[in-house]
Amino acid sequence: MQKCKFGNSDLEVSAIGVGCVGLSFGYGSAVDKQESISHGTMGDAPKPISSNYRDYVAENGVSRFVFTFEAIGTQWEIETYKPLTRRLQQCILNRIQQFDATYSRFCPDSLVSQVAAASNGGCFDFPDDSLALFDLYERLHTATAGAVDPLVGRDLELLGYDQTYSLMPASDLVRAEAHDRGRATWSKDIIRDGTSLITRRPLAIDVGAAGKGYLVDIISEILGEAGFIQFVIDGSGDIRHSGESSIQVGLEHPFAPQMVIGVTNLKDRALCASAVSRRAWGDNLHHVLDARTGVPVRDVVATWVVADEAAIADGLATALFFTRAEHLAEVFRFSYVRMFADGRAEISQNFDGEIFS
Predict the structure, then answer these.
(1) pTM of the model as a whole
(2) How many helices (H) and strands (E) does the chain have?
């Protein structure tokens, strides 16, 4: 793993640690509108994914292979000890496009866009991978008393994170009318039968809380099935490591990307992060909403979670904005760091790492 140093200190962390604050799947590419256009997230259909493949020799003399590409509006990197075949590279890219075509609310032809456009609702059959994803969302929905809800998509649209990426909140009148009709919730507006969802009205599904982490897990399974046992997948902040030796990953400061607030040692587990600073626009608007109110959170500004699976780490990184860690620990196994708006940092006793004072 390539290393880098921070400032004039002797601290070295893996290069992927720089920027480990995650960009949540399903929210487009970036705050800058022109950049979002270049990434093809302005409601266009999925485009062919550009990629790059290279090898390098690490300081210990061991060859590493790095596969980089842009997908679902963000940068990805897969590092392995042995080369990926061209066929395996394409398999990964095809699987990501398939996932995007199902779950991206920025693609007008995606399955979730069809759900959102069904004026009278309907029955929608999702692929097999939705089973574990929807199961996780239901656990998160219950554990957070409804604060994490995949039907938060409509509130994101009303605040400007719509399919055209307008970044312009709807008028107070439009928002009031929408709220008068009742806020949609997963528990009362969705009838789920395995991988099938039954709806009675248009519903905006957004899997940003756990979707990118789940996609990291899917890629991890593809690599495992191909015989890879040592690798690092970095989905722009959602990281999964497999191997005998741990890596040290820096926890990026949410408001100073050139700084880290601490480090963690990662081995055979996943690390995911979330921050209010990465997708912020307008007056105190950002992408982390409490689904019960439709209002962006204020007290917590960043979270980092380590868990066995990236989907769980990703979902809990969102849940920690709303719910006490002790309560979530009754349902999930994880360690975490949480940073508050007043600058305080909270670290779990089982977190393998440290926070700098």
Answers:
(1) 0.83
(2) 10, 21
